[in-house]
Design the sequence.
C-alpha cells in the first residue's frame, strides 16, 4: 500500500507537469472549391493533415462546420440572435439560410462517419479507426458542399454577384492544454484556430475579382487581370465628379454584359503560418493597388460607387503597418488587403492578410480610417498572436482598441474622430470628439449605471449593451493605465517582448501579464485583480490645492473616490503657456 501510494503520487506529479508544458498542434489544408454563382453554393474537396504534437493519445477529433450556424433557428448562433432580440435570422426564409455538409470522410482508405454536437450542428466529432499517438500524423480526405446564406453575420452573399467566404470550410478544432475547443459559431464571440498552411484553389467565373488570405501562385494571367483593373481604377480616380458617375454606370453595365457563368478560372492561393483562410469575390469590384514600403502587397477591392471615397484606404494600411511594426513587432505576412462588403457583425471583420469593411466613408469623420486600421491591426492581435478570442476578447479587441487609440492620437491629436466644421459648412459650433472621449463615455456609462462587468468573462457571457464597452473600451483603458503605471518606455518594451515570445503561438492573459512582470520587474497581481478580474474603478478628484504667496510651492491633494485603491494617481501640472 505504501509503495502504491508513492507510485500514484509520482504519477500524478508527472501528469501535472506534462499538462503544464506548452505544446501546439499543427494543421495543413489543401482545398479545391468551386463556386456556383446562380445557386449561391459551393462544393469541394479538402485534404487535412493534422500533426499531434501533444503528449496525449487522441481517439477522436473535432471539426468546425461553421456555416451550419445558419442552417435553422435551432443553433447556438440563432439562439444568441434571438436572445439579443435580433429577429432577422429567425424570420428569414429557408432559402436565405446556409449550411456545410460533409459528404465523405476518409483516412487511409477507410470511410469514417461523424456525429454532431447536441443542439449544435456546426461542430462535428469524428471517431478515429486507430488512436492518434503523440508525434503521429492524421490525414483526412473530406468531400463537402455548402451554401452561402444571406448576410446575417459574417459569411454570406449580397446583391447578385458578391460573396464573402469566411469560416466556410471544414476547420480543425484547436486541441491545447485545456483539451478540445468545439465552440460553436456566434455573432458575439470570435474564433480560435490552429496554425499551419493553406493551399487553396478556387474555381469561379472568369470575370470575377477575387481576393483571399495568401498569395497567388504561378498565375501570371490572374496577375495581369488584377493589374488591368487596378490601372482602370487609377484612370477612374482622375476623372471629374460628373465623369465618375458616368463611368460607374457604364462599368457595372459592361461587366454584367460580359459575364459568362460557364467561363471559369481557377485561382490558386497559398499561405503559411496562419490559422484561418477567407476569400471574397465580386463581379463589379474596382481595385486600388499599392506595394507598401516594406514590400507588402495591398489590394483594396471596392464597389464602384465608393471607389473615390475609398481612394486613401491604401495609405491607411501603410500607416497601420508602420505604426504597429514600430510599437509591437514586424509584419510577417506578404499581403495586407481590404475588401468592401456587407457585414452585420460590426463595421469590419478581420482575417489573416485580408479584412472586410462595411461602414460608409463620411468626409466629416475619420471613422473609415479608424475601422480600417483596427481591422488591419488584428493581423497582430489575432493573426500573429493567435489567442483564444472566445475565451478572452481582451487579448485581441482590448489590445487592438488600445493601439487604435494611440494611432489616432499620433496622427491626428486628441480630438481625432470628427470634423464638425466641415459637416456644418464652416460654422464652428461644435467641439470635435476624440477617440479617448468615446471610450471613456462608453465605459463610464456602465460604471454610472452599475452594469459594468469584469474583463475575465468569455465573449458570449456579456450582453449586447456591455460587450463592446468592456472588451474593447475597458480593455483599452486598462492598457492605458498599465502604460502610465510602468512608464511608456517599459510598457512598450514589454509589448514588443510579448510579441517576440508569442508570435505564431496561442498566448493567454496570464502569458501577457507574466511578460509584463518579467520586463518591468514589478508584481502586477494587484493590477490584474483590480483591473481585469473585478469591476473596481478609479475616480480621481483634486481634494485640495495649497500654494505659497509667490506660487513657488504648490501642494496638490488627490482623492480617489472609486473602489480601486492601489492605482497611483497621475498628476500633471500644466502652465498657462501650455507647458507640462
Sequence:
Amino acid at each position: 500500500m505504501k509503495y502504491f501510494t508513492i507510485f500514484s503520487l509520482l504519477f500524478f506529479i508527472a501528469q501535472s507537469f506534462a499538462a503544464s508544458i506548452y505544446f501546439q498542434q499543427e494543421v495543413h489544408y489543401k482545398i479545391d472549391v468551386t463556386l456556383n454563382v446562380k445557386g449561391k453554393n459551393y462544393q469541394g474537396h479538402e485534404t487535412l493533415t493534422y500533426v499531434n504534437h501533444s503528449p496525449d493519445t487522441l481517439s477522436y477529433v473535432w471539426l468546425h462546420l461553421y456555416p451550419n450556424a445558419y442552417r435553422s433557428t435551432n443553433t447556438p448562433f440563432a439562439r444568441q440572435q434571438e436572445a439579443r432580440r435580433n429577429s432577422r435570422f429567425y424570420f428569414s426564409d429557408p432559402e436565405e439560410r446556409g449550411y456545410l455538409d460533409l459528404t465523405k470522410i476518409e483516412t487511409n482508405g477507410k470511410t469514417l462517419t461523424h456525429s454532431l454536437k447536441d443542439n449544435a450542428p456546426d461542430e462535428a466529432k469524428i471517431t478515429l479507426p486507430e488512436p492518434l499517438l503523440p508525434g503521429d500524423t492524421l490525414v483526412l480526405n473530406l468531400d463537402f458542399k455548402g451554401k452561402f446564406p444571406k448576410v446575417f453575420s459574417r459569411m454570406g452573399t449580397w446583391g447578385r454577384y458578391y460573396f464573402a467566404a469566411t469560416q466556410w470550410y471544414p476547420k480543425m478544432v484547436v486541441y491545447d492544454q485545456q483539451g478540445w475547443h468545439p465552440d460553436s459559431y456566434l455573432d458575439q464571440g470570435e474564433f480560435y484556430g490552429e496554425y499551419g498552411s493553406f493551399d487553396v484553389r478556387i474555381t469561379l467565373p472568369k470575370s470575377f475579382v477575387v481576393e483571399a488570405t495568401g498569395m497567388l501562385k504561378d498565375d501570371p494571367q490572374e496577375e495581369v487581370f488584377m493589374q488591368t483593373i487596378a490601372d482602370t481604377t487609377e484612370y477612374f480616380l482622375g476623372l471629374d465628379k460628373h465623369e465618375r458617375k458616368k463611368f460607374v454606370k457604364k462599368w457595372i453595365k459592361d461587366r454584367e454584359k460580359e459575364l459568362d457563368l460557364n467561363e471559369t478560372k481557377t485561382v490558386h492561393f497559398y499561405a503559411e503560418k496562419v490559422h484561418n483562410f477567407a476569400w471574397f469575390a465580386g463581379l463589379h469590384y474596382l481595385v486600388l493597388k499599392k506595394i507598401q514600403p516594406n514590400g507588402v502587397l495591398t489590394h483594396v477591392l471596392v464597389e464602384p460607387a465608393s471607389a473615390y471615397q475609398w481612394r486613401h484606404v491604401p495609405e491607411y494600411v501603410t500607416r497601420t503597418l508602420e505604426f504597429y511594426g514600430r510599437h509591437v513587432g514586424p509584419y510577417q505576412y506578404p499581403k495586407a488587403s481590404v475588401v468592401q462588403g456587407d457585414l452585420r457583425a460590426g463595421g469590419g471583420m478581420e482575417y489573416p492578410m485580408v479584412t472586410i469593411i462595411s461602414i460608409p466613408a463620411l468626409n466629416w469623420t475619420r471613422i473609415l480610417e479608424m475601422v480600417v486600421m483596427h481591422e488591419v491591426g488584428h493581423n497582430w492581435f489575432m493573426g500573429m498572436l493567435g489567442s483564444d478570442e472566445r475565451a478572452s476578447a481582451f487579448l485581441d479587441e482590448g489590445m487592438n482598441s488600445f493601439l487604435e487609440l494611440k494611432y489616432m492620437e499620433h496622427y491626428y491629436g486628441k480630438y481625432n474622430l470628427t470634423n464638425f466644421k466641415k459637416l456644418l459648412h464652416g460654422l464652428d459650433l461644435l467641439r470635435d470628439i476624440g477617440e479617448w472621449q468615446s471610450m471613456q463615455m462608453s465605459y463610464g456609462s456602465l460604471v454610472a449605471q452599475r452594469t459594468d462587468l469584469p474583463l475575465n468573462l468569455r465573449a458570449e457571457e456579456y450582453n449586447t449593451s456591455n460587450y463592446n464597452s468592456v472588451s474593447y473600451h475597458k480593455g483599452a483603458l486598462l492598457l492605458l493605465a498599465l502604460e502610465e503605471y510602468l512608464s511608456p518606455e517599459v510598457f512598450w518594451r514589454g509589448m514588443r517582448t510579448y510579441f517576440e515570445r508569442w508570435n505564431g503561438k496561442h498566448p493567454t492573459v496570464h502569458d501577457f501579464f507574466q511578460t509584463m512582470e518579467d520586463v518591468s520587474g514589478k508584481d502586477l497581481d494587484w493590477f490584474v485583480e483590480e483591473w481585469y478580474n473585478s469591476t473596481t474603478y478609479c475616480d480621481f478628484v483634486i481634494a485640495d490645492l495649497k500654494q505659497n504667496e509667490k506660487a513657488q510651492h504648490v501642494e496638490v491633494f488627490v482623492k480617489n473616490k472609486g473602489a480601486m485603491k492601489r492605482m497611483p494617481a497621475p498628476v500633471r501640472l500644466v502652465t498657462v503657456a501650455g507647458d507640462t
